[in-house]
Amino acid sequence: MYRTYRYSPPASPGEAAIGAKIMAQSFVVAVEQEQTYVDTLGHDHLRLVRHGDDILGGLVLLPMGQWFGGQRVTMTGVGSVAIAPQGREQGAATFLMGAAVQEMAQAGVPISTLYPAVQRLYHQVGYGLGGTYCLWDIATAQIPEQRPSLDLYPLYPIALDPHQLLQVDRQLSWGQTHPGGLDRHPFLWQRLVNPGEGDSFAYGLGSSQSPQGYVIYRQNRDRYGPTTLTIQAWAAASQVAIASLWAFFAQHRSQIDRIQWTGGVVDPLAMALPEQRASLRSSTQWMTRIVTVETALAQRGYPHGLAVELHLDIQDPLVDTNQGRFVLTVRDGRGQVAPGGRGDLVVPIDALATLFTGLRSAQALRTLGRIDATPAAASLATVLFAGDSPWMADFF
Ligand SMILES: CC(C)(COP(=O)(O)OP(=O)(O)OC[C@H]1O[C@@H](n2cnc3c(N)ncnc32)[C@H](O)[C@@H]1OP(=O)(O)O)[C@@H](O)C(=O)NCCC(=O)NCCS
Questions:
Q1: How much distance in Å is there from the Cα of 341 to the middle of ligand 1?
Q2: Residue 47 included in any domain
């Protein structure tokens, strides 16, 4: 039975505290930790769902960016979706997420991305699978010994300046070579340099005048288990830069037993090793929603050297302005969208997300019955959205 719910930001710090408490209980973390999270982020990032006077749950909106086709697409991350146990399985989360999508659409947000604990919930409001997030691991003894060909210099004192890392990240245009990569929210940068437990270390590659990459990592000594170096974030401008990172990690081998990192199922760090010695420990998939069709398709990048039109017919029961026919015109690697056209490729909004990120090709989606398209439109869309397998190293 669906009840009548309301959606809004917290009206007072007290309401934000109730939301934080429900999130803490739902994610099995200390209330104080969750309260600090929502206070640091700002209560204007919080949304609550109510039934009558009761606050039943909430979520957090994180405005940032994500790279697709070599271009930054404005993206709102959704996190901490939580409903108090007494309010569950009655449609509260579906209402909350639906209202959040409509709010984002009204604000013109192009896309939204999240990590689903319950995939069905997000499918119902138009999110589709977007890319991978994998945990990789290798014994340091398995890394070939060599000297880094690029210098590494400490980015100290790290706790003072996440902005410095952000600048290096921007200078390298790391995301341009890495579909799905995050242009992090300042809170996520802050969390990288100040994780709350243990110390973070950060090194630049090359020189500060001409950075070739960076790495941020933590170390953990387990009295009874392996001592681990966990890479929290990295970027590298070239294969030489990646090889220098590996050589740097190998230099930790007298005390560090294992190196761990998060990346993609097709992972550039793992693939830079001469042998397939790294193990894929776990793999999950994030989901993306095309919130505003016109801006999402216009902000993404496309292959250069094409001048083509793709005629889409989009089905979006939740956001009226996305519903119907659109023509995507691609020229010089950029796209423009106008209403109308023949509707050669009929696509529900969740499948459009999977196509948009490049996780599945239009031809594969057609074979699976997820889209309905003329053979010519399916093969054109396959080319337009093709790229490396999308992945993200950050969890939020
Ligand atoms: C996951 C959670 C937000 C769902 O809230 P809810 O209000 O019970 O969800 P809804 O009633 O709107 O259900 C939405 C859909 O998800 C399904 N669903 C809900 N809880 C589920 C669960 N634990 N496992 C699998 N499916 C679930 C529902 O059956 C429904 O699908 P249906 O309409 O096809 O039947 C809630 O259980 C919760 O807060 N859990 C702890 C925190 C968490 O895991 N949050 C999700 C982070 S991504």
A1: 38
A2: yes
